[in-house]
Write a structure and sequence with these properties.
The protein has about 400 residues and is α/β, with parallel strands linked by helices. About 35% of the residues lie in helices and about 10% in strands. The chain has a 6-stranded mixed β-sheet, sandwiched between helices. A two-stranded antiparallel ribbon has the order 5-6. Helix 6 crosses helix 11 and helix 7 crosses helix 11. About 45% of the residues are buried. The C terminus is likely disordered.
Length: about 400
Amino acid sequence: MTADVAVLGAGMHPWGKWGRGFVEYGTAAARAALADAGLEWRDVGSIVGADTVRGGYPGYVAGATFAKALGWQGARVASVYAACASGAQAVNAARAQLLSGLADVVLVVGADAAPKGFFRPAGGERHDDPDWLRFRVLGATNPTYFGLYARRRMALYGDTPEDFAQVKVKNAALGALNPYARYRKRVSAEEVAASAVVADPLRLLDICATSDGGAALVLSTMEFARRHGAADPVRIRAVSTVTPRYPNTVLDLPDIATDSAAAVAPPDETFRASIARAAYEEAGVGPEDLSLAEVYDLSTALELQWYEDLGLCGEGEGAKLLREGATAPGGRIPVNASGGLASFGEAVPAQAIAQVCELTWQLRGDAGERQVPGRGWDSPRTRGCSGTGRRCSPCGERRRVPHPV
């Protein structure tokens, strides 16, 4: 038995470097999501904000900050910080509130105003903080980590810089079609190869930038969705927030060392693969059931790694999957139809929320020029819907979303 919640609304503020505060980006995204849902702010029973550590006190209490900006109306409030997982944790917190009966409608908001250049740890001397240590002791900035991961793939699986460049080519072509993306220009493999080396073997165009931006979702119980007139809304069926198992033998920053496997055998799967498995098990599906995916492409090499961790292909076969065109529009499993972080850059609290926005628009068939064929209104996989456009042929009903698979 699954525990679904409905996605009634999705909204974003365009990503870029706008020079304004994160609250402005978040409230703009929130209002867009509410309008998309056909709801008023006063209809919201709870708001969950994904925190930013770069916004001072308002950033640490993002839920209350956004509630105040939208206008106090008595809603419950929660704030969540989990670094790059903040958006996913915020969605998870909202889902828990809905399934527990604490609220019928929850607004989830994440926004950031990022610094120029790569991220660095918050100020202060913290010798027991692995994030502080990896910067100050190792000099391991995020691009350094991305480069090490790329080198690992090259050593283990034979990936090449040319493979990495093709990830950027694919995502840039899709980002060029996305009005919310920061970078809306196609690039060639030659342009990637000609860009400056940042962390060998990765070049400037292999690595995502830091950005300003915001994203928001209006989630509800299925009962509320039906009362609201959304008989078959896009649904969130599972959220995975699992932790690693000891010993963790594949390095993930901010950790700067792996566990020893001398006395205890490593687990059967890596940490990242366990995240996907937990989501599949809760949702009652497998990777073979997926129609498209949004993955965390902090670098081009990391996108290839996620292909494998999600079970889209076998270990070491990510580059092969890419070369075959399987992850491009029209392929077996299109990945990052939004353009990915390659086109957006990092606005940390908003990233996972933005991915859910994109998947919502794709499943509705509302993704415009970047719509993945067969995943929205025209999908032959939708139950009972054989026609095109937004009218279900068998039932004749003009629907907001297609019948579920």
